[in-house]
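In line with agreed milestones, work has continued on tokenised descriptions of protein folds. One protein thus recorded appears below exactly as we store it:

>
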Amino acid sequence: MRVLVVEDDASLNRQIVTALTDAGYVVDKAFDGEEGQFLGETEPYDCVILDLGLPKTDGVSVLSAWRREGRVMPVLILTARDRWSEKVQAFDAGADDYVTKPFHVEELLARVRALVRRAAGHATSEIVCGPVTLDTRAGRVLVNDLPVKLTSHEYRLLAYMIHHKGRIVSRAELTEHLYDQDFDRDSNTIEVFVGRLRKKLGVDVIKTMRGLGYVVEESA
């Protein structure tokens, strides 16, 4: 899963990026509204953490611009402001959730997990696909109730496909959502990780759709 953090406080930006990275997310960052708006318009994100009080362009203007452009990724507003009128303004602009500084990192991570789940149509922290269970809260995978040890790359790949189970996901889409903007992207790497995943899972849940990509199916 790929997340964008738009926060002008360098220390807080670094803290959030580190927490998200440690939790298994791929993270891009911006320090002003102009850069953040550009990234949000040109890169695919599964969630955005957006500060309201940004230099160059404020957060509400950035969010409003994204929504006018049809960008539907979930957006979590992060700000020191706590007046109800500003919360209403943010929600009216298209925000999905709101956290006031100071905050606990664990709460922020829980809200991001919830936003990503809901955006993909899942209500609980455990997503089940046949014998495979993805525990998003613990960051682990079980097959027939037994834990399977995966690398961070393998986990991110499987997590994205299970979040979007039943839908064909192309190699290009997987590459865009699994690597940050500076990564030298090679779709052939996806094939390698899919092969490793199939061996480790030991069950036939990942189907190859020739010429289209992959799909994780309930009935598999």
